[in-house]
Amino acid sequence: MKKTKGQADKRFIAFDKEINANRGAKWGRPQSSFSEFCSIFEFSPISLWEADYSGLKLHLDDLKNKGVADLRKYFIKYPEEIVSLSQKINILKVNKAALKLYKANNEQEFLECMSPVFNKESYDVFRENLIALSEGKPDFSGESVIQTREREMRHILIKVVVPPEYSESLAHVFVYIIDISTQKQMEQALKESEARYRAIVENAYDAIIVVDTDTGIVVEVNKKSEQLFGMLEEEIVGMHFTQLHPEEEAENYRTIFQSHVKHGPMTTPDILICKKNGDEIPVSVSSSVIYLGGKKYISAVFRQTEKNSDEIRSGTDHPSKHAEMRSLPPGKTDALSGREREILFLIASGNTNRQIAQTLNISTHTVRTHRSRLMEKLNLHKTADVVRYALKSGLLDSESI
């Protein structure tokens, strides 16, 4: 049986208080209080029934008198009893919200919807409700599924409340219902979306890790990451991202990480990661900032490159060179996208369009397009202008070219 969520129970509390404060009017209080009770009942936004469960109570008592000690086992053995007991409920009154939920124009049409045909959810919930009533519990809550007059299935939260003065006879019982179909649809859509995301990530050609930007802790990895790092998922998750790189260069990689967090989508070519056995593997990493549950994360894609670790350590693409990008110049570069900033740095570092395309795993046409746009934004006309701008702004130092 599905239980109601805590927040769903809170949605019943306010109405419970109103009913509890006024229901006694129906059975002996002044006429003004009785009128107030009827108004609350009729115009409540929550679907509400008043029902007579006395016939059902007599049947439950009869089962006890016959020696049935475990109703749950009994109902499993005799499931037809559930249907028989449901037919002993006499609905006395329903409010406008209940008619609307069941798409009934009046109480007669509403009663036509009360079919004794159960599905798995409604059967389980009604069975547990019967057990709760037999144990003398004053209320019961659960999730179920109903069918409207137009044969539309709706997911609901249901609460059954027995007034204290009718705890023995069950002659008057209140049934509250909240339609949660929209919520269920959203939950299902979210599950499907998560399943699609998981399928994409798990079947990706490259290693993908997700890192908490606040702590630097790895929170998620895919199967390719296990192969790349030579570790199981449970070993990688919980590590600090710097532990995936050469220990002596932790600060350089911390700077690269902070740059990715600050500037959004970007690619850093030719960096080193460490396998569990100590081997250093050259990779390029492309990242983007994502938000999950209101928190900020970096999703990083690692792709192994053709260079060896010695080439990377001695070349201009060593992480210590990338660290020079940590402070992008103010002013005009604020208008550049993350990709344009990457290409600006690579142009100023002396790379050709073809080299940039290979480094970033994009086409030369795309490089030319970004190059044209960034030069237009910065009002630069030649490659030499790009180099001078990078030097003057501090994006690049003279040793990097």
Commentary on this structure:
By secondary structure, the protein is of the alpha+beta class. The chain folds into 3 domains: 6-185, PAS domain (Beta-Lactamase); 204-325, PAS domain (Beta-Lactamase), CATH 3.30.450; 327-401, Winged helix-like DNA-binding domain superfamily/Winged helix DNA-binding domain (Arc Repressor Mutant, subunit A), CATH 1.10.10. The protein contains 18 helices and 10 strands. Strand 9 (280-292) and strand 10 form a beta hairpin. Helix 15 crosses helix 17 and helix 16 packs across helix 17. The radius of gyration is 34 Å and the shape is elongated. The model is unreliable at 1-9, 23-30 and 320-331 (pLDDT under 50).
Which keywords apply here?
single chain; alpha+beta; Arc Repressor Mutant, subunit A; 3 domains; 46% helix; Beta-Lactamase; 18 helices; five-stranded antiparallel β-sheet; 401 residues
Tell me the overall shape: elongated
The largest β sheet comes out as: 5 strands, antiparallel
Write down the overall mean pLDDT. 80
CATH architecture field of the largest domain: 2-Layer Sandwich
CATH topology of the largest domain: Beta-Lactamase
CATH class of the largest domain: Alpha Beta
Provide the CATH superfamily of the largest domain: PAS domain
Strand order of the largest sheet: 2-1-5-4-3
Indicate the percent of residues in helices: 40-55%
Strand content: 15-25%
One letter per element, helices H and strands E, the order comes to: HHEHHHEHHHEEEHEEHHHEEEHHHHHH
Query: What's the gyration radius in Å?
Result: 34 Å
Give the class from helix and strand content and strand pairing.
Answer: alpha+beta
